[in-house]
């Protein structure tokens, strides 16, 4: 494994930073957990290019992909400690601290890329970003990674097929509850651990986007892929708040403009990469791609339907209404 977690330490960042040389150089260390050839990996690189270009090389964004610095939950701690200045976790990973963010985990609500774009740029997403200030984090924008599918070691076609299965999930209560409603057992795990867990047959299935299933080779072991589009995956692009406040207004503007400039490109990238990797999976002789038919989808939706009422009543009815409004 080229990027052993921990092989790139804080000392390594400090050493690299010292080598830069320019007096007024600003370094933004950006850590993430996915492969470089994915919608988040490529977006992080594009962002670095734009910021460097707009600042004439004065601001450098150094991207550390593949969890080489920090795993899912450590990266948030690292951001809060200003060990790194930027991360872009999946929104589901913020829900322990900000339960209302589970609104984006509700299954089968956002159904098209157009709706996803509308939500990630709409009123709800603005409110979600503002909530980050409670954690002393500066919320910048959202990136997309499209829709989640299921990869599994046995075909999952009907809702009953989930029964008794151990499913890797991210740590959001709504996602975990979704699988309990399907009589499966959710196993929350860090992204970095998924490959190992599949390899050692410790989980039966997991939900993820095609770009993650393909780039992390989950399909080589879990070779039944159900195209369910049951949930979305979005990334909250965020910065350490003190670091943000230490930047001049002009430099803040460079960051904001770079993100704005690439927003539409990023949404299209997510659609394109997931589509291209799906084409590649279709060509894999040992991979079975299962299209969920309407009847099976309905059954599945019926099993998880109590989640809407639960979220509405117990978590945040206002956000649920905003979500419905944004996709309308
Ligand atoms: C996962 O844990 O499956 C994803 O959140 C990974 C990612 O960042 O896309």
How would you describe this structure to a colleague?
The protein is of the alpha/beta class and 328 residues long. 45% of the residues lie in helices and 19% in strands. The chain contains 12 helices and 9 strands. Strands 1, 2, 3, 4, 5, 6, 7, 8 and 9 form a 9-stranded mixed beta sheet that branches. Helix 2 links the parallel strand 1 and strand 2. The longest helix has 35 residues, at 249-283. The protein is globular and about 60 Å long. (2S)-2-hydroxybutanedioic acid binds at residues 33-34, 40, 72, 90, 145, 170, 191, 208, 212. (2S)-2-hydroxybutanedioic acid (LMR) binds at residues 33-34, 40, 72, 90, 145, 170, 191, 208, 212.
SSE blueprint and pairings:
Layout: H1 10-18, E1 26-31, H2 39-54, E2 59-64, H3 72-80, E3 86-87, H4 113-120, H5 123-131, E4 137-152, E5 166-169, H6 173-181, E6 185-188, H7 191-199, E7 205-208, H8 210-215, E8 224-240, H9 241-246, H10 249-283, E9 288-291, H11 294-304, H12 306-327
(2S)-2-hydroxybutanedioic acid binds next to loops.
InterPro entries: DctP_fam, TRAP_DctP, TRAP_DctP_sf
Organism: Ureibacillus suwonensis
Keywords: Signal, Transport
Give a nutshell description of this structure.
By secondary structure, the chain is of the alpha/beta class.
